[in-house]
Design brief:
The protein is an alpha+beta fold. The strands form nine sheets. The chain has a two-stranded antiparallel ribbon. The longest helix is centred in the first third of the chain and has 19 residues. The radius of gyration is 31 Å and the shape is elongated. About 5% of the residues have low confidence.
Length: about 200
């Protein structure tokens, strides 16, 4: 075929459409081959790969520039699934103060709020400093049939504490199996990574 073109004095020209399609494909394939994915030897301790050469820290560890640092969870606290902040929250009935969880002192005629990190006065009482005083109206207390491990929410309904779930008219303990943890809300459980 070259001989035919040579006799005519013409040199074959590449098809522009073919070049336009082939060049980007070659560039893409070579960029994939030249990129090196993070290997387990490149990863910091307690990390796993996510995509390409990206990595994240295992549950219970927080990513810094080039390492995974253990999250220090204080007494009466639990890990959260959040990737920002301290990565932990205080249990119900405890309030965060710097890097610890302090017990909330609930005064007479008061109950824990629906979030469990503060308290509110019962109906007929008003908050005065750190106690509840009569507001001069009739009292209405929490339902007398409220089960153990329950609290009154902001709508005056009862809900189960963290680690318990409502089953009919009682709060039953949530059985968390091996390799699992309570969810952030504490009313169910999730499997650890890899399970």
């Amino acid at each position: 075929m070259k001989a035919a073109f040579a006799r005519l004095g013409q040199v074959p020209q590449p098809n522009v459409r073919t070049v336009t399609l082939v060049v980007p494909v070659i560039v893409f394939i070579s960029s994939i081959l030249s990129c090196s994915e993070a290997t387990s030897a490149d990863l910091p301790e307690h990390a796993y790969t996510t995509y390409g050469d990206s990595w994240k820290c295992e549950r219970g560890f927080k990513k810094t520039e080039d390492e995974c640092l253990s999250i220090k969870v204080p007494e009466h606290a639990f890990l959260t699934d959040s990737s920002w902040g301290d990565n932990w929250k205080c249990e119900r009935g405890f309030k965060k103060t710097e890097d610890e969880c302090l017990s909330i002192k609930v005064p007479e005629h008061a109950f824990l709020s629906s979030y469990g990190n503060s308290w509110k006065c019962e109906r007929g009482f008003k908050k005065t400093e750190d106690k509840c005083q009569s507001a001069g109206v009739s009292e209405k207390e929490a339902p007398s049939d409220m089960p153990e491990h329950a609290f009154v929410d902001y709508k005056d309904h009862w809900k189960c504490e963290r680690g318990f779930k409502r089953v009919e008219d009682e709060c039953q303990s949530i059985n968390v199996p091996e390799h699992a943890f309570l969810s952030s809300y504490g009313n169910s459980w999730n499997c650890e990574r890899g399970f």
